[in-house]
Design a protein that fits this description.
434 Repressor (Amino-terminal Domain), Rossmann fold, 3 domains, 12 strands, elongated
Length: 341
């Protein structure tokens, strides 16, 4: 493998001149640049990214500390971040922590050692221990994505307005004439899950609808949990006419359980999801859901981070994203519909 000394020897210049040509760090005559570039091409020389980063004080790399890239929601946001990184010439280093504090600490140390230019954080949980870890890396430009509740002012934050999204789902079902409403939520220790459920309950309270505790189940975001929760809810003699699932993947499991029990969706029970994952419109029936602007979220986060990296901006920003209702075919009018509206 060719070295910078080989290039310098072939071009008849010093290694310092070769370095200045590669890094564009000092004036070099065009004739000399041409000779050096020809030597680089002839020898198929590839500069050391590590050595170059030490000279120019940046690595053109971004670290992303995430919960997981397996869940469709996270996967779509991460894909957007990666696309934006690539378009701007940055390499993305993805670290899936699965909310394990030991892994999060190890990954943050590794990213700092690799001298990443900036750090994106997209975790589903933010316990105090993680916040304290992030505080130690204030010297790295940082943006926190999809945070249910902002704490501190050490970074840019993009907040998922989960309460409003849950409220949209509840209001929509109520306006369609449903009063017997059930909820399958994600784990309530997560800010976003708790917010989605609370927003839905707020809509019920606004309409003077009393929740049925036996129709409210807390679970995780897996399809199996939606399946089991739906079977549990439908085992009661009195059944809801509509269900809110705090994630589309849980809604997929809920639809499957209803079908197995001979309960048709949406004719017998309506279902609304949350996130609008890429495949939601291909469910049977196509899923009515609350849309999260995942592509825009990834783009906004990278743009904010790039502003911190390039423009050295120090002030913290908080941006709130607003979910939207996507109406498809998994909800029909309920028994209490007011046809005069």
């Amino acid at each position: 493998m060719a070295t910078i000394k080989d290039v310098a020897k072939l071009a008849g210049v010093s290694t310092t001149t070769v370095s200045h040509v590669i890094n564009n760090t000092r004036f070099v005559a065009e004739e000399t640049k041409t000779i050096v570039r020809a030597a680089i091409k002839t020898l198929n020389y590839s500069p050391s990214a590590v050595a170059r980063s030490l000279k120019v004080n940046h690595t053109k790399s971004i670290g992303l500390l995430a919960t997981s890239n397996e869940a469709p929601y996270f996967a779509e946001v991460i894909e957007s971040v990666e696309n934006n990184c690539f378009s701007q010439g940055y390499t993305l280093i993805l670290c899936n922590s699965h909310n394990n504090l030991n892994k999060q600490q190890a990954y943050l140390q590794m990213l700092a050692q690799k001298r990443v230019d900036g750090l994106l954080v997209m975790c589903s949980e933010y316990p105090n221990q993680l916040l304290q870890m992030l505080e130690k890396y204030r010297n790295i430009p940082m943006v926190v994505m999809d945070w249910g509740q902002a704490h501190g002012d050490f970074t840019d934050v993009i907040i998922d307005n989960a309460v409003y999204g849950g409220y949209l789902a509840g209001r929509y079902l109520i306006e369609r004439g449903h009063r017997d409403l059930g909820i399958i939520s994600g784990p309530l220790k997560r800010n976003t899950c708790n917010g989605r459920r609370q927003g839905f309950l707020n809509a019920m309270q606004e309409a003077n609808i009393q929740p049925h505790n036996e129709w409210i189940v807390e679970d995780d975001f897996e399809p199996a949990s939606g399946y089991e929760a739906m079977k549990q809810i439908l085992s009661h003699q009195q059944k809801p006419t509509a269900m809110f699932c705090g994630g589309d993947i849980m809604a997929m499991g809920a639809i499957s359980a209803a079908n197995e029990l001979g309960i048709r969706v949406p004719q017998d029970i309506s279902i609304i999801g949350y996130d609008n994952v890429r495949n939601a419109r291909f469910f049977t029936p196509a899923l009515t859901t609350i849309h999260q602007p995942k592509e825009r979220l990834g783009q906004m986060a990278f743009t904010m981070l790039l502003d911190r990296i390039i423009n050295k901006r120090q002030d913290a920003q908080t941006i709130e994203i607003h979910p939207e209702l996507i109406e498809r075919r998994s909800v029909v009018d309920g028994p209490f519909i007011d046809y005069r509206r």
